[in-house]
Design goal:
Layout (H helix, E strand, L loop, with lengths): L1 E3 L12 H11 L5 E3 L19 H4 L3 E5 L4 H13 L2 E6 L8 H13 L1 H7 L2 E4 L2 H9 L7 E3 L16 H5 L5 E6 L8 H10 L7 E6 L5 H10 L6 E4 L7 H6 L3 E4 L9 H8 L4 E4 L2 H4 L8 E4 L4 H12 L2 H19 L1 H25 L12
Parallel strand pairs: 1-2, 1-3, 3-4, 4-5, 5-6, 7-8, 7-10, 8-9, 10-11, 11-12
Helix pairs in contact: 1-15, 3-5, 8-13, 11-14
Length: 373
């Protein structure tokens, strides 16, 4: 299997999906090599080094390319057709690109190679419901799309962890945690006001905001104005190795996003740690949170609703414990990497079977689309 990624978006869009998927599939006996990522990022088989120019000579059975209409997807489609290999696309899902280069690449992809990629792909794996909808809007047949979530390392993200960051800041008692950018789209101001109206008036609760962003200064000023600055703690963006203990040391995780740009990747991690989640009622976040079983949902930006769910969650330790236990069970069932890899493997096997049937039906390549460039 060849994994094709864009090095510019590997960390910002796909996260650790490609490296973790490669590691799991290697463990299941598959030969895997990565192309496009810096050396050492994607685990690989011992029959060659990743990132070299030997993709065509290696001749994989299946090519996996990230971002369904990206230049990487076009390269994957071109390579798959030349090698008569199956093509599986992974759609991460940026519903409304904000950065200029993202909008430009989407525009180019839709006009230059979308038809070629669609006709070549045997399957699409969407990482959440927004990615699923985007793949459908891009013209991929619904029957070719499978939604499989981003996996979580549940040996790292597990119950019972304690955080050195929390200890260093001398934060005691119960913790309402937010991890992420401090930007308007993240809805942190709504969370701050809900905290002030409920447990922010108590000495046994703290709001911990871990992250940086343009809203940090104004949020600090807002905390002063509403009288909860002593109960709000500001941490820098946590390092990767600090995240499991930081999340595991929380009482509740909050994801108060205002729109679909927030992926909610911390939710599954919190569930792995047995931490209940309060989140905005948006498709991406609703995909993870089961109301009254692993946490609660509230309309994005609705201060009254957020105040209500925070008050409810804070009022009963017994309920929180039940939610946390169920969250861990759901994480093991849905989000563990071995489970994700098993489901992904089925998609790969079916894609190879479909490609073989197509090749037998059209041995001379008849009916294949002409490349649109």
């Amino acid at each position: 299997m060849a994994l094709l990624v864009d090095p510019l978006t590997l960390t910002t869009k796909g996260g650790d999906h490609a490296p973790e998927l490669a590691r799991e599939l290697l463990g299941r006996g598959h030969a895997v090599r990565g192309f496009g990522a810096p050396p050492g990022i994607i685990p690989h088989s011992t029959d060659g080094e990743p990132g070299d120019t030997g993709l065509a000579s290696w001749r994989p059975d299946v090519v996996v390319a990230y971002d369904a209409l990206s230049p990487t997807a076009w390269l994957g489609a071109r390579t798959a057709r030349r090698l008569s290999a199956a093509l599986v696309l992974v759609e991460v899902g940026i519903a409304h690109p904000r950065r200029i280069h993202e909008r430009f690449l989407q525009w180019i992809g839709e006009r230059a190679w979308a038809r070629y990629v669609r006709h070549t792909a045997n399957a699409v794996v969407a990482l959440d419901p927004v990615a699923d909808r985007l793949a459908r809007d891009e013209g991929f047949p619904p029957q070719s799309i499978t939604t499989l979530p981003q996996g979580v390392d549940l040996e790292l993200f597990r119950p019972g962890l304690s955080s050195a960051l929390i200890a260093q800041q001398r934060i005691r008692g119960r913790i309402l945690l937010y991890v992420g950018r401090l930007e308007e789209a993240r809805g942190v101001r709504t969370l701050l006001h809900a905290f002030a109206a409920t447990v922010g008036q108590r000495s046994d609760w703290s709001l911990v905001l871990a992250g940086e962003g343009a809203e940090r200064v104004s949020l600090r000023a807002g905390a002063d104005r509403i009288g909860v600055s002593e109960r709000v703690h500001w941490l820098p963006r946590p390092r990767r190795e600090e995240l499991p203990a930081l999340i595991g040391g929380a009482t509740l995780l909050a994801v108060p996003a205002r729109d679909a740009s927030v992926r909610g990747k911390q939710i599954a991690r919190a569930m792995g740690c047995g931490v209940p989640v309060l989140a905005s009622d948006l498709p991406r976040l609703r995909y993870y949170v089961e109301p009254d079983r692993t946490g609660l949902l509230a309309p994005p930006g609705d201060r009254a609703a957020w105040t209500a769910i925070l008050q409810r969650a804070a009022s009963s330790p017994v309920v929180r414990d039940r939610w946390g236990q169920h969250a861990r069970e759901v994480a093991l069932e849905r989000f563990s990497w071995p489970r994700i890899a098993e489901d992904f493997e089925r998609v790969l096997i079916e894609a190879v079977r479909t490609q073989q049937e197509t090749r037998l039906a059209h041995p001379n390549g008849e009916g294949e689309p002409v490349e649109n460039t």
